[in-house]
Amino acid sequence: MVKRTTIEIDEELLRRAKRALSCSTTRATVEEALRRVTADVEAADAERVARQLELLAELSQHIDLDVLASEDMWR
User: Fewer CB near the last or first residue (10 Å), C or N of the chain?
Assistant: First the structure.
């Protein structure tokens, strides 16, 4: 889906982004910047989830789930 919109953009920043991203048009520059930032954030999220799962797996080796589920936990 494509949406037409009008925004104000810092021309110097746009020029720098075009050069940095090797894009020739404003649209291509904005789309490439959105692709890259989205990919970076999604990768960071996936990495954080993987680390959390690793930690939970490691913790499960040191926790007695039967004790946690019992009333002994609260004594």
Answer: N
